[in-house]
Here is the input.
Amino acid sequence: MSETVTRRGKRHRLADLRSRWSEQPRGNLISAVAGKQGSIPSGEDESGRQGALKRISAMWSSFRRGKRDRVKDQEPSAPLGLMGADNTSRQYRYVSGQYFFEYLVVVSLKKTKDGSSYEPQITYQFPKRDGMARFQKEEEERTLKAITLFCFPEGINWAPLTEYHSETFSFVLTEIDGSRRNGYCRRLLPGGKGARPPEAYCIISSLACFGLFSKIFDEVEKRRQISMAMIYPFMQKLREAPFPAPGNTVEIKSFIPESGTEIIRLTRPLDSWLEHVNFAELFSCLEDEEVLLVFAAAVLERRIIFIADELGTLSQVIHAVAALLYPFTWQHTFISIVPKILIDVVMAPTPYLLGVQKCLLDLVTDQNDLLLVDLSEDKKDTFIISIGDESSVLPPKLQTEILQALSHRKKASSKSSRLPQACTLVNVVITVCLCFVAAAEELNRVVSEAFLLFFVKTVGHYMSYVKLSPAGDQSIFEKRSFYKAIESKTTRHFVKKFIQTQMFDLFIQEVEQQQPGPQQGIFHQKIIEYQEKKKRDKTKKD
Here is the structure.
C-alpha cells in the first residue's frame, strides 16, 4: 500500500510545520535587532552568551517569498521595453499595487557623547511620515534602528578615512508573519576634505531586484555630489512610478543643473526569479566543485556560514546560493550579513544561511555540524569546517552532468571576450562593456539551467503522484510511490532524504492547493521539455 500525505487547512499546515521544524518565534527580527543594540557587553561569559541567544530567539524566522513564479506569473506576452509607437500601445506593464521603495535613508557615523567611538545615526529620511499612530511610530523607530545596525554591522570600531572603496550590498528584514523587506545599501566616503568616516545610503523595499536598485544608487550618488536637496525630487518621482513587470521598463524624468532633464530607464530582467542574483561573485570565490558541495549542504537544509571581508561579497554569494535551490525556497533563518552584536545567531540549532565578516571568524569557529565556507582571497582552505559527507550527497552521475553544463559558460566566455583586430579605443570600450553584460547574462542562464535540470531529473515526475482523494475534495501526494518510481538507486537515495526537507514539503503543499490543470512557470516548462526529449530518444532506440 502506498504511503500518502494528506493536507488540510493551510493555516493548520503552516502551524504544524513551524512547531515541527523550529522554535516558534516570539517576536520579529526588527524588534530583536533594536532591543539588542548596546545590550551585550564585549566580555560576557558563556551564560551571558546563552542569555543573549534567548533574547534574539525571535530571529528564527523564515526566508520565504510566498508563491514563486512557478504558480503565479506567466511570461509577458508583449515585447520587452516600449510597446508600439502610439501612446496607447506604449503603455508599460506594471505590477499592480507595488512601488519601488518604502523609504530612503542616509546613515552617518557620529561620535558618541564621550567622543571615544562612532555610532550610526540616520541623518536623512525620505519620505518623512507624519500623522502616524503611536504604535506605528514605535514600529518605525525599531525598523530605523535595525537599518543603522545592518548598514554598519562591524560595530563601533571606526576611524576617519581619506580613502574608502565604495561597496553595495543587501540585507533582509523579516517580520514575525514571514513577510520580508529588502534593504539595499551603498557605503561610500561623503564629499569633503580631510579624514572623515563613511556614510551609507539605504533603500528599504518589499521588492527583490539587486541590479535595479544598484542603478538607482548610481543616480542618488550622482545627485548627492551636487547637493542633498537634489535627491528629493528624483526619489519623489521614483516613488510615484509604478514598478514594472518582468521584462518591462519604466522611465523617470529628472532635472540636473547644467545637464538639463535626464531620462533614466529602469528595466527588470525577464527571468524575474533571477533579478536579485548575480552568480559571478559566487563562481569567482569558489570553484565549480566547491559550489556543488555548498549546494549539497543547502539542498538538505543544513547550517551554512559564509566568511568574507567584503559585505558585497557576502550578500551576493548568499543570495546566489539560495537561488540555486529554485524552484524550491529556503525556509529557515537567512541573514546575508550578521551584525557583530547578533553573532550569537550562529549557535542556533536550526538550519540557517548566514554571512559573517572575516574579522568575526574567531566567534564562529567553535561550532560544529555545519559548513563554514571562506570566500576571501587570502584563504588557506575554502571549507574551514564541514560535516564531511557533502561530496556524497548528490548522485554521482548528476554531479558530473552539472559540472559539464557549468563548463559551457567558460567556452562561451572565451568566445565573447575576443576583440576584433582593428578597432578604435571607443569601439574597444563599447565591446568590452557589451561582452561584460553578455557574459553575466550567459553565466546566469547556464548556471540556473544546470541546477534547474538537476531538480527536473530528480523530482520532476512529482505531478504524476499528486492524486485526488476518492471524495474528490482534496489532493493526496503519494510520497512512497513517488520515490520508489525512481530507477537509479543513488538518485532514489538522495530523493528519499530531500523529500523530508521543509522546502520540498511546502512546495508540495502549494501544488496540492492549485486547481487541476496545466502547470505554469519555468520549472514546468523544463519538465515538459525533458519528458519530450526522453520520448524522442526512446523512439530512436526502438
Observations:
- DSSP finds 16 helices and 17 strands in the chain.
